[in-house]
Amino acid sequence: MINIAVLPGDGIGPEVTAEAIACLEILSAEHDLDLHFTEYDFGGIAIDRHGDPLPSETLEACRNSAAVLLGAVGGEQWSKLPIPPEQGLLRLRKELGLFANLRPARVLSGLQDVSPLRPDISRDADILVVRELTGGIYFGERTSEADVASDLCTYNREEIERIAHVAFRQARHRRRKVTSVDKANVLATSRLWREIVMEIAAQYPDVELDHMYVDACAMALVTNPRRFDVILTENLFGDILSDELSVIGGSIGLLGSASIGERGPGLFEPIHGSAPQIAGLNIANPAGAITSGVMMLDELGLGGSGRLIADALDKALHEGCRTHDLGGRATCTEFGARVRQNLEVGLGQYGVFRELIAMNRGCCG
User: Fold this and answer.
1) Are 271 and 246 in contact (CB under 8 A)?
2) b/e code 102-124 from CB counts within 10 Å (16+ = b)
3) Residue 238: enclosing H or E segment and its boundaries?
4) Of 21, 104, 257, 278, which sits most exposed with the smallest number of CB within 10 A?
5) How big is the CA angle at 116 (ends 110 and 118), to the nearest 5 degrees?
6) All residues at 6 or more sequence positions from 341 whose CB lies less than 8 Å from its CB, including other chains
7) What percent of the chain is predicted at pLDDT more than 90?
């Protein structure tokens, strides 16, 4: 049995997570994957019920699971609390040792119209952001007084080395190019970052490395996105750039992500927020959550099966099934149902293909 801890969270989180799990359950049943899903309180809903965005029961369940599937956290009603929901997410990443965040974005062939960029600019863009997740300014010492505040940004050699290795290994499975993004003309942390990334690059002579300042990268993402393959960057820059990157595919609702460490369970979540303004309206886009489920299967060594869900999702978009964020009228549940319909067709075709292979082996045996 493969135990998956499910954290639906807040806002649209439960809606999109439900659609992703429904797809995974169909696949699990047909391919005998033995996936088992258990929900736990997390985020704002956990504050309401337990007084803590990350209750001890939830943390322990995540530690003991093969993977964690997250919806979204946060909302205005909890934003001014001493420990808001987002702090629970930062703590969960830290407790599980999830230092690498992988955020892929691409423009599907034939769907350039979804992107706000001109088709000649967006066509065939396919980028993976590898973001360092547990260091930098988000985890630095903070001070806050009436008229002055500060946030400390710190990185050490080990943190930079391990995230650089992730980026170069990922590039070996793609187009073998890493663009390291920093602000080395201003920041001491960026100068250290660039120096260490260059050292690590020497261990990957088959992968090309170049460097860009973060402001130049932000411009290039929307003027020449095809120049990028893997973008390697620190926590704050990665957060901003990966959200900007979402426009290339047409909507932040399309993108999933994986947060991984050296061992233990990974955390898989759509990159969008909780969007409380549309929660309960059944209009959220579940594609990011479904994609996160596919990334989870890949990390669990079940990427071949996960490809069937990815293909079903791509087919739904090509067929014109689009949610409100993509200019369409499909509801969250309608979009999920279309993906599952395509998945069942794909599973049927896959089954026939396997039977033909078995028959041919029997004939040749």
Assistant:
1) yes
2) bbbbbbbeebbebbebeeebbee
3) helix 235-249
4) 278
5) 65
6) none
7) 84
Strands (E), 40-164: 67-72, 100-106, 126-132, 142-144, 149-151
Task: Show the CA angle centred on residue 4, arms to residues 20 and 88, nearest 5°.
Answer: 90
Do 216 and 104 meet the contact criterion of CB atoms below 8 Å apart?
no
pLDDT tier, 250 (very low <50, low <70, confident <90, very high otherwise): confident
148-169: pLDDT as tens digits: 999 999 999 999 999 999 999 9
Please, are residues 68 and 268 in contact by the beta-carbon 8 Å criterion?
Answer: yes
The span from the CA of 288 to the CA of 71, in Å, is 10
| Measured distance CA(350)–CA(127) in Å, rounded | 29
Q: Which of 226, 297, 327 is nearest to 26 (CA)?
A: 297
Q: What is the pLDDT of residue 356?
A: 40
**Predicted model pTM:** 0.90
Q: Which residues are catalytic?
A: 138, 183, 215, 239, 243
Number of C-beta neighbours around residue 76 at 10 A = 10
> Is-contact 257 270, C-beta < 8 A?
yes
The candidate with the shortest Cα–Cα distance to 111, out of 321, 291, 336, 337, is 321
pLDDT at 351: 58
CA 78 to the chain's CA centroid:
24
Q: What is the pLDDT of residue 362?
A: 56
Domains of the chain in start order, with CATH, are: 1-96+264-365 (3.40.718.10), 100-257 (3.40.718.10)
Residue 353: the pLDDT is 44
